[in-house]
Amino acid sequence: MREMSRDEAIAFLSEGTRTGKFATTKADGRAHATPIWFVIDGDDIVFNTWHTSAKAKHLRRDPRASLVVDLQEPPYAYVLVEGSATVSDDLDEVRQFATRIGGRYMGQDRAEEYGARNGVEGELLVRLSIDRIISAADVAG
Amino acid sequence: MREMSRDEAIAFLSEGTRTGKFATTKADGRAHATPIWFVIDGDDIVFNTWHTSAKAKHLRRDPRASLVVDLQEPPYAYVLVEGSATVSDDLDEVRQFATRIGGRYMGQDRAEEYGARNGVEGELLVRLSIDRIISAADVAG
To answer: Cβ A21–B64 below 8 Å, yes or no?
Structure first.
């Protein structure tokens, strides 16, 4: 087991269709985690969410969150990000990222379709700052 | 997108080497999520953890936790479990599950090796009751 460099961790997060598991705190204090499609933009994890989603609700109360991505087969590895989230309803931005994110997870040929589907009024754009990275590569050999 | 039956959700959790992302609440209230190797035993999610791990520490303060498992490629799917965790340091039980869990994630031919490696004093056994399941199959087509 070894730690990754920051560049290696960012590349790990960005590989293929790996989803993020985004963890927020519920009103009653319980931790909640849900899979998200995301891209990295500068020093942020960026994703769309519907304005009534559980995570949107949680972030309005407490913007602190964590995100984990892992490799689910030998040699196993993971990257955990801690940060603070800001939420925007700017429709141009929402649509721009819905297109990029659709391209990552459904293929470039369907990017525009997903941009149109998810780039709509009511969708939000969440930016999670990458404040801290905890990582482990080669967990099991 | 559709909900899974309970049996379908349990089968989804148990498939191959899918890891769980286990979410707990830190002392400062931030949600924390980390990948775990687990098996299902009756109505519980069962896994080993070292006694000084972050999740062991969090569970001693607040036993409520969530676990999410997802399919990271089209058609995408996930199962989220909410429950309450109990922690045991019974070494026989710790070793028994370390063997089962090693077999799931590293292959049956290495189960005993992992049982011996992780079935040691200081390792704990966590049981998360499956109190509530939230699931989605065929998220994107």
So the answer is: no
Domain total in chain A: 1
Contact with chain B for residue A56, Cβ under 8 A: no
Q: Is residue B75 part of a domain?
A: yes
Any idea what the CATH number is for the domain that residue B93 is in? 2.30.110.10
pTM: 0.96
Chain B residues whose beta carbon lies within 8 Å of the beta carbon of residue A31: 23-25, 31-33, 64-66
B107 Cα to chain A: minimum distance (Å): 10
At A123, list the tokens: 């969708």
Query: Each residue of B78-111: pLDDT tens digit?
Result: 999 999 999 999 999 999 999 999 999 999 999 9
E strands, A1-141, are 20-25, 31-36, 39-41, 44-50, 64-71, 77-88, 123-129, 132-136
Task: Establish if A141 belongs to a structural domain.
Answer: no
B141 is a domain residue: no
Question: What is the percent of chain B with per-residue pLDDT over 70, rounded to a whole number?
Answer: 99
B1 in any annotated domain: no
β-pair partners for B25: B31
* Host domain of residue A12: 6-136
Cross-strand bridge partners of residue B36: B20
ipTM of the predicted structure? 0.95
